[in-house]
Amino acid sequence: GNEMHALNNGSRIEEENIENDERKRRKRERKELKRKLRNDSTAELNSDILEPPTKPKYNPYLSHLETQQQQPHGDQRTLNPFTQIPFSSTYYSILSVRESLPVYEKKSEIFELLNSHNVFILVGETGSGKTTQVPQFVTEFMRNQQSKGVVACTQPRRVAATSVAKRVAQEMDVTLGSHVGYTIRFDDCTDSQTVLKYCTDGMLLREAMIDPNLSRYSCIIIDEAHERTLSTDVLMGTLKELVCKTRSNDLKLIIMSATLDAKKFQKYFENPPLLSVSGRMFPVEIMYSESPEVDYFEAAVRTAVYIHLNEKAGDILLFLTGEEEIEDAVERIYSELTPTEESSGPVCVLPLY
């Protein structure tokens, strides 16, 4: 009996050791995959910067009116105005995507509003491209006006500020941290060359406490204003004083919202113009569980596994409440799907928090 008990314990310990080793192996693989993805992205961006384009294309950083009035000579139209080197092939492939966004059609209207008003409101539905494109339009406009100030775009969350800055740096074909950067708590990824900066509303509010006139900025864009964070509301009070009185001649303010509640902001800022941009809509089918779930975590993992096993190939985005649940879900999904890879195909589960 004792020998049998000891044998069972030994088998259980051996199984636990094997399971722990497998868990550690998967964790190492995830870290290696994330590192490789990060390095590949950086290498691709850096190698493409010096790669000449296949053919000359319109340079969006030249003035819209100036381009119509005069044709540039030689290869000037292919040069990045910030780096003074030819745009990369990656830039042109991304540009075609940018031009398909609904907000891109409003570029000339945005230029006109910037030229004639200090403040305006932009209502852009989800998917319109306002967060990535409008700051670039403003940067182009300010450059054409030979303004030396920085364009700042606030975000309510740190992840949004950093991820959008990385995307915009790619779209503008510059290195993140130079002409395009971000500032969040404990992380300032900008330098003396920065012309467009994404930051959290809290960080801009801290700057306003040190420099009440926000003198280094030529334009401030408040994005996701409909979320009405405390920092955003306090910022709006500060900015109203600046654009209406203290810096009425040299500071632009754009309030961007995803809802028509923007009319409240319009009233607060004494009825500036309001520009509406439609969004890109995709077919969405909403499905509900037949009865309330006792354990939402178990239900979420079970649903993700079911979709992978029974639906066509694609990606699954699973929202959970925090780091611990996300890591647990990664382990659970791997443990349930790894044995089925031969029949259902490989699975790659990546945590994001």
From TrEMBL:
Q: Which InterPro entries match?
A: DEAD/DEAH_box_helicase_dom, DNA/RNA_helicase_DEAH_CS, Helicase_ATP-bd, P-loop_NTPase
Q: Which keywords fit this entry according to its UniProt record?
A: ATP-binding, Helicase, Hydrolase, mRNA processing, mRNA splicing, Nucleotide-binding
SUPFAM superfamilies assigned: P-loop containing nucleoside triphosphate hydrolases
Where in the sequence does UniProt note compositional bias of the Basic and acidic residues kind?
12-23
The record's catalysed reaction(s) read:
ATP + H2O = ADP + phosphate + H(+)
**Broadest EC class?**
hydrolase
Q: Does the keyword Hydrolase apply?
A: yes
Here the segments flagged for biased composition (Basic residues) are 24-37
Per the record, the GO terms for biological process are: mRNA processing; RNA splicing
Q: Please, which domain of life does this record's source organism belong to?
A: Eukaryota
Instruction: List the Gene3D superfamilies.
Output: P-loop containing nucleotide triphosphate hydrolases
- GO molecular-function terms, A-Z: ATP binding; hydrolase activity; RNA binding; RNA helicase activity
Q: What is its EC number?
A: 3.6.4.13
Region (Disordered) location: 1-60
From the Swiss-Prot or TrEMBL record, give the protein name: RNA helicase
Q: What's the source species for this entry? A: Timspurckia oligopyrenoides
